[in-house]
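Action item from last week, closing it out:
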Amino acid sequence: MDDPENPYAPAHRVPAGPNDNRPTAFQIIQHECLIGKLSDAVIFITGCSSGLGVETARALSSTGATLYLTARDLNKARKALGPDLSNDPKVHLLTLDLDSLDSVRTCAKEFLSKSNKLNILITNAGIRHVPFSKTKDGFERHFAVNHLAHFLLTHMLLPTLQQSSKLGFESRVVALSSTAHRNSPIEFSDLNLERPGVYTKEKGYAQSKLANVYMASEITRRYGLAARTHDPRKPGVWGLAVHPGGIRSGLQKDSSAWEVVTWYYARNLMKTLHYMKSTEQGAATTVVAAVAKRFEARGGLYLEDCGLAVPVRKGWGLIDPGYIPGRTDNEEDARRLWSASCRLVDVRDDEL
């Protein structure tokens, strides 16, 4: 996952906070020369009523693509997106409540009734550090909302992603993760984290974020690399996992003020302030994963700061970048989680 040359890196290597010159999502579109160039593409983004989802949609709308944006509260989404996007005939809003697998099924069916094409799926929505509870489907909420709901949505849309994929513009699934994925393995014997003393808000979130990484890598193995193995000329579907960076947004709404302060100042004040990004900067890595030419027909990768992540340094802290070799890229656990997820959401395990 080494990334020695990041074409989007600012002139200086040390970030200086949300007002520095790290690229924004729209600047990525400009750098890729994609303004108005994706008019035939269809993009689906979850979680577009605040924060990263809104900025991601705003940047990708400049490509001319048709956007399908989801939110639990469409009125909130319209207000957050503003009149330019809300009134754009190429922008369509869909209701999606990730706490409910029935809502996921309904949303996917509604999309498929409106479009027979999908080029890019971005699973952006999520929750963070909520107290232990279960969804009405019986799953721990972090795992259900951040992983299982998106897994079911992706599974239902994969046939359309496959048929829409073309050489030179192959379909992509972009799963938003976090550096928190380093903080817990997948607890296969207790995915709901119900054993006494197991659950913490941090562990619930961490497990779900590692699950996001594994979904992206397994999509690549099953629907990207497998397609290439059988026919080198056959386009596939490729999964990329993204850490957007530290952004103060609605995702932290369930964290107490002390938890937020502790997280922000985990190492020291200046380092944390330098690490933080604006929402526009945070959405940039998502946009890189979605449309950058350098990631055409590539997958099973974990991205941060608009490029490939590198192994985390020894003695790392909460906000330090990087992945843990042997965990993020654990193929056996990724396969095992895919099979378990198929069983939990009641879909066929389409092992290729």
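Closing note: The first strand starts at residue 42 and ends at 45.
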